[in-house]
């Protein structure tokens, strides 16, 4: 006696009827081999029809036991590599290579390939009894050339159940240790009701995660059909499914990450978080009201910087923290700078801060980034892209004559190409490339970060030939970039000293 509710049976009948029309062949579940996880006759029939020479070679090797040997090899390879991989990359048995499906040819130039493609055999099994331990069954399973590729648990909402009940069925009554339900053995598991669809590619007991598989947030109404009918009419049609197997399915090695929740009652909503890339146990928090907190022990304890209120936060983008990868304890923060500096720097993990507003107007700073050596800091702001030179101790606007004069929301520095990449809203991404000698401080010949009389004396010694400059010293001495060190460079260095 069939235990299916009549209304659920009607839903299954509707799907089966349509799939039969598009050349899915219905097969009784008793033809399914629970140990091999194959419909043996379908697998063998496909190979014998499409690869006669290969089959003959295998018969010469195995004799009367050819069918059993080949089926066991195919089942083992699917278990080891997954169905996607064996469909795409063949199965090798004693040096004989077997194709387990043929994808649609890209042109009509090869009639033999077209004929092989047409010999693919799609089938479906209702109430597939898959288990080696009990008589559990799955409502509908689709197969390609005898190899399972899709499972579906179906629910008709007239019975008071929906796709969520299917999800729980997979979670609580479908053991992922069963050979048939092991990861990669089939492509996808669908949960389907009259209106909605969800899916997963990996069963993991109660931890199984399902994802919506609808056309939109809700599937649109369909005249004289179920809202979910797009699944079997569009996705599961033969060409579409083969295209997905060939081009779009991807097996990734998932990793699970676990987080330890750390509670702390900050004085306001957290608007930015950061940590030191040198030692991640140093962590930083900025709140929407400009309060800065630092932790020296992986966030176990937090200290608020007293007598300091930094930049506030944008209502949507928050504020920004950028920690130096060169000096432990150096932290830059940015945010709303209408009534204070938009950017501050700390040299001691946030215990004290110094304003950095020389050349930077009162504006909103959305994101900060910098070069690995801290020589240049970049700011994406409400009024344009800015760069701060450590040597000049000043901010400079970068737009020039080519970049748009508008709000820049994001910035990242890409050290491999010496490029600061700024993002706008609606005007694209803009790259600002630093000169390869950007870190040089022209005039600072002895590299002590100060231009003074000692640098002039060193340049005079180069001109007189008393000393030979290194490459770095030559670059910093040749201020007018005429590829020689002479009296004009001395004049320019003296000008820098007096300007300072």
Secondary structure topology:
Blueprint: H1 6-21, E1 25-26, E2 32-33, E3 38-39, H2 40-50, H3 52-62, H4 66-81, H5 83-89, E4 91-93, E5 96-98, H6 111-118, E6 122-129, E7 137-144, E8 147-154, H7 163-173, E9 188-192, E10 197-200, E11 211-212, H8 230-235, H9 238-248, E12 270-275, E13 283-287, E14 292-295, E15 303-304, E16 320-323, E17 331-334, E18 343-346, E19 354-355, E20 365-370, E21 376-381, E22 384-389, E23 394-397, E24 408-414, E25 419-424, E26 429-433, H10 453-464, H11 471-477, H12 487-499
Parallel strand pairs: 1-6, 8-9
Antiparallel strand pairs: 2-3, 4-5, 6-7, 7-8, 9-10, 10-11, 12-13, 13-14, 14-15, 16-17, 17-18, 18-19, 20-21, 21-22, 22-23, 24-25, 25-26
Helix pairs in contact: 4-5, 10-12
Walkthrough of the structure:
- There is one protein chain.
- By secondary structure, the chain is α+β, with helices and mostly antiparallel strands.
- The chain folds into three domains: 6-248, no CATH class; 270-433, 7 Propeller (Methylamine Dehydrogenase, Chain H); 453-499, no CATH class.
- Helices cover 26% and strands 24% of the residues.
- The protein contains twelve helices and 26 strands.
- It has helices at 6-21, 40-50, 52-62, 66-81, 83-89, 111-118, 163-173, 230-235, 238-248, 453-464, 471-477, 487-499; strands at 25-26, 32-33, 38-39, 91-93, 96-98, 122-129, 137-144, 147-154, 188-192, 197-200, 211-212, 270-275, 283-287, 292-295, 303-304, 320-323, 331-334, 343-346, 354-355, 365-370, 376-381, 384-389, 394-397, 408-414, 419-424, 429-433.
- The strands form seven sheets. A seven-stranded mixed beta sheet has the order 1-6-7-8-9-10-11, sandwiched between helices.
- A hairpin with a 7-residue loop joins strand 14 (292-295) and strand 15 (303-304).
- Helix 4 (66-81) crosses helix 5 (83-89) and helix 10 (453-464) runs antiparallel to helix 12 (487-499).
- It is elongated and about 95 Å long.
- The model has no long low-confidence stretch (mean pLDDT 89).
